[in-house]
UniProtKB/TrEMBL annotation:
InterPro entries: Pept_S1A_streptogrisin, Peptidase_S1_PA, Peptidase_S1_PA_chymotrypsin. Residues 1-26 are annotated as: Disordered. GO terms for molecular function: serine-type endopeptidase activity. This is Streptogrisin C. It comes from Streptosporangium canum. It comes from the Bacteria. Residues 8-26 have a biased composition (Polar residues). GO terms for biological process: proteolysis. Keywords: Disulfide bond, Hydrolase, Protease, Serine protease. Belongs to the peptidase S1 family.
């Protein structure tokens, strides 16, 4: 995709990423009837073929083949993170105060306010973006998604797949740190003694040397012990993940699983 599709709540406005860095502008929007929009990103951002799976890590996107009714499907959302269920119907309709949306997928996946626009994926196949629904993630509910292929076809976009690499140099992060490792060596950023972070979401990006396998582990200090609380461990040089946690002292361990060379680590913390 030339730029990310999103939910059709507005058009013509500028957008910012979760780190409040300018992201791009809305190029098209359709709501009600449909529930989608798309954003053309600026040079600060590079779309990659992954979904933020929150507690499930980074999920790679392999395509956009429609999953059949009864298939398992998972959803990512900024309020409730990662939740899964099944596709119950295709070509469903839902009515909001603004009007009726048609052609949606209906699922048993829960969602809550703020999850709208999040990715739906079945295995490695992108399915769509969250529209809305009923219920919550405590008692369960029904949620609808706008199919991704319709968005791509309407706007002539191409889905980015097979990725996993964050933007080169980890641009768009609050802080960046550089280092160099030999194979099987560890490095700690910004230092071995760590940094203080408030409660909330931390974003970590690792840009390792091409042809290597570099991993990143977010660690939290408890007493005198460092414990891994989140990680990016794909068999690639680059990693990107988030962690929603409590305030405390943290550090990032960078591990050269195979290969050697210089790396860049991006970090945004509350």
């Amino acid at each position: 995709m030339a730029a990310p599709p999103t939910r059709g709540d507005t058009t013509g406005a500028g957008t910012k990423g979760s780190n409040q860095v300018a992201q791009g502008t809305f190029q098209g929007s359709s709501f009600p009837g449909n529930d989608y929009a798309w954003v053309a990103v600026n040079s600060n951002w590079t779309p990659v073929g992954v979904v933020n799976g929150y507690s499930n890590g980074i999920v790679q996107v392999g395509g956009s083949a429609d999953a059949a009714v009864g298939s398992s499907v998972c959803r990512a959302g900024s309020t409730t993170g990662w939740h899964c269920g099944t596709i119950q119907a295709r070509n469903a309709s839902v009515t909001y105060p603004e009007g009726t949306i048609t052609g949606l997928g209906r699922t048993s996946v829960c969602a809550e306010p703020g999850d709208s626009g999040g990715s739906y994926i079945s295995g490695s196949q992108a399915q769509g973006v969250t529209s809305g629904g009923s219920g919550n993630c405590s008692s369960g509910g029904t949620t609808y998604f706008q199919p991704i292929n319709e968005i791509l076809q309407v706007y002539g976009l191409t889905l980015v797949t097979g990725g996993g690499n964050p933007p080169t140099g980890c641009t768009g992060y609050q802080n960046t740190y550089n280092g160099s490792l030999a194979s099987n060596q560890n490095g700690y950023q910004p230092s071995s003694t760590g940094y203080t972070a408030g409660a909330g979401v931390q974003r970590i990006c690792l840009d390792g040397p091409n042809g290597t396998d570099y991993d990143a582990y977010l660690q939290k200090l408890s007493g005198s012990t460092w414990t891994d609380v989140a990680s990016g461990t794909t068999p690639n040089p680059d990693e990107a993940f988030t962690y929603n946690g409590t305030a405390g002292t943290y550090r990032v361990r960078v591990h050269a699983y195979s290969g050697s060379g210089s790396y860049t680590l991006g970090l945004t913390r509350p």
